[in-house]
Design brief:
It is found in: Periplasm. Residues 1-21 form the signal peptide. Keywords: Chaperone, Periplasm, Signal. The chain has one helix at 6-15; strands spanning 18-21, 24-26, 31-34, 39-46, 52-60, 69-71, 75-78, 83-90, 101-111, 117-120, 123-131, 146-150, 153-158, 164-166, 169-173, 177-180, 185-186, 190-195, 206-209, 211-212, 222-229. The chain is mainly beta. The protein has two domains: 8-131, Immunoglobulin-like (Sandwich); 141-229, Immunoglobulins (Immunoglobulin-like, Sandwich). It has a seven-stranded mixed β-sheet, with no helix packed on it. The longest helix has 10 residues, at 6-15. The chain is elongated and about 65 Å long. The N and C termini lie far apart (46 Å).
Length: 231
């Protein structure tokens, strides 16, 4: 995110003696919150040579707003080269969690003002997964996805209590037709669907997906059978 307008930026470039950029770097690519720990922490390092403000905000997804997650110190000054521990508190639920939940957390760098320097802020937008206390960990929840074709629609049904992360491209087999799905995740106990392109073949009976670990690392490819249902 730039903290100057484009016109101001071009004008300042002509007058400035230097260009300045700053950035905060979280320790991992995912904030994992365990219900039984009632929160989590994330270390964030100021990799720049000057102090900056760190602004942290949790964003609820429209399709998964609960449970609530609070940042205890949303704005803090971090010295150059230092590490700031950011603490998150999980709001109590009326009943124990049964499924994983997904949010996003944004770590935004706000550089300090200085003469003859352009200030560019950087934002890291990471996923947050909230895990129920009694839910066992499995590495490959995508194996339990159910794929259904009905007319010119293909659906992916996630009956598991786990969040499934995957590329937004799947491949129908044996034709090799590619289909775009609406989002790079499937929430527990939900179904997503996509329109099949005109080029798809009714002989396609398998789908090849490209899943990711909870930390976003590619897991190669996985093939599932497609169930055919009448319209």
């Amino acid at each position: 995110m730039k903290f100057v307008k484009l016109t101001s930026l071009l004008f300042t470039l002509a007058l400035s003696s230097s260009v300045y950029a700053a950035g905060m770097v979280p320790e991992t690519s995912l904030l994992l919150v365990n219900e039984n720990e009632r929160g989590a922490s994330m270390d964030v390092m100021n990799t720049d040579s000057e102090p900056a403000l760190l602004y942290v905000k949790v964003r609820d997804l429209p399709d998964d707003p609960l449970p609530g997650l609070i940042v205890t110190q949303p704005v803090v000054r971090v010295e150059a080269g230092k590490v700031q521990r950011v603490r998150f508190i999980l709001k109590p639920s009326a009943t124990p969690l049964k499924t994983e939940h997904l949010k996003r957390v944004m770590f935004t760098t706000i550089p300090e003002l200085a003469e003859n320097k352009i200030k560019i802020g950087f934002r890291q937008d990471l996923p947050v997964i909230i895990r129920p206390a009694d839910l066992p960990y499995i590495e490959d929840p995508w194996k339990d996805l159910v794929w259904i074709r009905s007319g010119n629609i293909i659906k992916a049904k996630n009956d598991t209590p786990y969040i499934i992360r995957l590329e937004q491209k799947v491949t129908l087999l044996p034709s090799g037709t590619e289909v775009s799905i609406p989002q790079p995740y499937i929430l527990p106990k939900t179904t997503i669907q996509a329109q099949l392109p005109a080029s798809y073949s009714r002989h396609d009976n398998r789908v090849e997906i490209y899943p990711a670990t909870r930390y976003g690392y590619a897991e190669g490819k996985f093939t599932s059978e497609i169930t055919e249902r009448s319209e």
